[in-house]
Amino acid sequence: MPEIIARKTRAQSAVEYLTTYGWAIIIIAIVLAALYEIGLFNPSGFVSTTCTFPAEFGCLTAVLSSSSATTNAIMNVTIQQSTQSVINITAYGCNNLGTPTNMILPNNPPSDVISLAIGGTNSLSITCYNNYSLLTINPGQLFKGYVIINYTNVQTGFPHTVVGTVIAKAV
After folding, report:
1. Distance CA 116, CA 106 (A)
2. Pair 52, 164: CB distance under 8 Å
3. Which residue in 57, 75, 78 sits closest to 66, CA to CA?
4. Contacting residues for 158 by C-beta, under 8 A, at least 6 apart
5. Do 109 and 161 share a domain, yes or no?
6. What is the CATH number of the domain that holds 103?
7. What is the tens place of the pLDDT at every residue in 98-132?
8. Are residues 116 and 62 located together in one domain of the fold?
9. CA angle 137, 142, 144 (to 5 degrees)
10. Secondary structure E strands in the chain
11. 153, 161, 134, 130 alpha-carbon torsion, rounded to 10°
12. Which of 2, 95, 129, 139 is the most exposed place for a label (fewest CB within 10 A)?
């Protein structure tokens, strides 16, 4: 008889042990599911927009948006020039290669250039490209690319190309 009681006690102890750990595993699974649902395990959720240009330009804002009809990516960048003379922006573009391809000419009649005084700012709306084709992007998607600006120094007349790096999440 004492042997039956001992087995019964051990069996009850094992059932209690398994039940306790079962509840703990269920609670952990629920907490992990809730954290996953709020996006804690999505690393792109923690990426902030960065826009970096060389010393002669500053990037004040950068917003990547997707056109609702075509999902083509449009980069809206506000730049500030800090060279020591007035400049004329002659072309600009956005791509993931950092090369001056698919550049847009400013539509600023009568000269088709954008003139920026020392310390002047301007907002550019640029269609972005991915490997020579239009970049299609969905809201929340991350893009790492380049904004390329061709400009001419008014004082010297020399043309220049500046490439800025942009990391942005589409809105």
Report:
1. 13
2. yes
3. 75
4. 152
5. yes
6. 2.60.40
7. 888 888 888 877 778 899 999 999 999 999 998 87
8. yes
9. 100
10. 50-52, 57-66, 73-81, 87-95, 114-116, 121-130, 133-134, 142-153, 159-169
11. -160
12. 2
Phi-psi region of 38 (alpha: psi -120 to 50; beta: other; left: phi over 0): alpha
Number of domains in the chain: 2
Structure pTM? 0.73
69 and 92 belong to one structural domain = yes
What CA–CA distance (Å, rounded) separates 87 from 117? 7
Ranges of the chain with pLDDT below 70? 1-7, 44-45, 67-71
By 3-state DSSP, what share of the chain in percent is helix, strand and coil, each rounded to 5? Answer: 25, 40, 35
What is the model's pLDDT at position 45?
Answer: 67
19 in the same domain as 89: no
Question: Does 127 share its domain with 60?
Answer: yes
11 and 59 both lie in a single domain: no
Residue 139 Cα distances to 31, 62, 126, 168, angstroms = 27, 15, 17, 11
Per-residue tokens: 30: 């629920």
